[in-house]
Design brief:
mainly alpha, Lysozyme, 9 helices, 9% strand
């Protein structure tokens, strides 16, 4: 009886470990410093960066996040191919070499796309609600519930606290436009 119980417990724990997914908290811990750094370079609130990434990627657990490193649901790049359950999947989503490349491209899109670039000129890093509304109005997402869903994530995990958090990058002198890849 004890051996059966031990084997069952080991089997369940190994299955659980294999199927373990990112949680919201682990995703925040893993990427909050990157979001804060991008905020200091671009003015896009860290809460917006993380909230949208968490929503679009399911905390990094979605198929496009896992297979294409695409955390923001960005389409384009000629399409990408990946395998899911041993089947070839052709995707309209952009493939990135790394997750951080996905974060950088999101910042570039928000600051450079014509329909989005004006938002960063008009708002500060403390206006996360206006950022969400502006991004939604620009057509970033087609769902009418998208903005409310992103705001719910930001509020639930108090991501707006990151918009206020000083770090070493904030203490340094702001780099010039020539040195900042997001402002080129």
């Amino acid at each position: 009886m004890k051996k059966t119980l031990l084997i069952t417990t080991l089997l369940i724990s190994s299955i659980t470990a294999f199927a373990q997914k990112n949680t919201s908290q682990s995703y925040i811990e893993q990427f909050k410093d990157n979001a804060i750094e991008i905020m200091h370079q671009t003015g896009i609130p860290a809460s917006i960066i993380l909230g949208i990434a968490m929503h679009e990627s399911g905390n990094g657990n979605s198929a496009i996040a896992q297979n294409l490193n695409n955390q923001f649901g960005v389409k384009g790049g000629g399409g990408a191919v990946f395998y899911k359950h041993q089947k070839k999947v052709h995707s309209a989503y952009k493939k990135y070499d790394s997750i951080l490349e996905s974060f950088d491209d999101f910042a570039r899109i928000i600051t450079h796309r014509q329909q989005l670039g004006h938002i960063s000129d008009q708002l500060t890093q403390y206006d996360y609600e206006k950022w969400v509304k502006g991004i939604q109005r620009s057509g970033y997402a087609s769902s009418k519930k998208w903005g409310a869903q992103v705001l719910a994530i930001i509020r639930k995990y108090q991501l707006d606290d990151l918009d206020q958090t000083p770090n070493q990058a904030q203490a340094q002198t702001v780099t010039s436009t020539a040195d900042n890849p997001y402002l080129k």
